[in-house]
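May I ask for a protein sequence together with how it folds?
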Amino acid sequence: MNIQMKRSSIPILWLDTNVVIDMTKYRENAELKDLQRDRVSKLINVIYQKTRSGKLLYVEGDQDEEINSLNKEAHKTQSFLSMGIKLQYRKAIHDDQLFAFMDAYVNKRDAVILDYRDAFYSDPVEKLKDRNNGYIDGLIISAYSEVTKTEIQERTKRKEVVLGQLNELRQTLLDTGVTYEQQLQTEYAGVIQAIRVVIEKMRDKLMRGLSISTEDYDQISIITELERTWGQVTDSREGLIEFLQSDCYKQIPFVDIASKLFAKIVTSITPVVSGDSMDVEHISTVLPYSDIIVTDRKMKNRIVQLGLDKKYEARVFCLNDIENILSEIEKL
């Protein structure tokens, strides 16, 4: 499958949540190591200069769920630097890609065209021009949700559960000698496996006369949403499973990137750390549309080792590369 990417005429920058938090701490004059303070101050300045001169798009992702104590302040930081230009929620972006590849598969086309504008609520290039021309008189309206202590506690528990599960899986794979390539095929087949588990679980509950829980219905939605999208591209109810097993499905950018990164993480000799799972979610969403990405050192190394930066034509850095980041942005 040939993927043709219509890229933005203005380079797009995306920053890892930890970088956003550090920039927020700097702006709020919160505790921050001197080296980190110096780095983020330079980064803020160059982003501000280039966005206001119309040469760079710094875009907000759906990162609120990762930010706890500085939620409101971090939102202000992102809105200030991005001028309110925000990516769609990642599920919407994934759904658009899924539809495009289903449509190509059903109609036997050998190319899929992905437009950077599809990842946004409206054309970010035009929005940046309008805002730099003063059409909104400096006013940026953007919504965010306050986070309660209960929500923070629930988030922390969920992260701990996911982290524990991933490290258990990693240890099992290491003990049984599963290779990266073997695990990659398992990751690609993840949706089909999830469907089989859900169907078996529902069948077992119905046979035993047990009630269906809210969690069960959430799991069933995996199937119903796939079937709904499939129904938008073809009248036939047949062929969905074959599509999910096809090379076409594996080439969907968010599937390709997430599968490779997860396979890399869970077959590594180093433990999975908190945040790895969500980082994969974000990177698999933003990488195809971004020109410059700043993430953490380990994730940068994984992306480069897997060749994902070259495949999706993005320059990937970590904050330790601050001089290279500044050079890349300043030359725009």
Summary: Residues 160 and 275 are 10 Å apart (CA to CA). DSSP finds 16 helices and six strands in the chain.
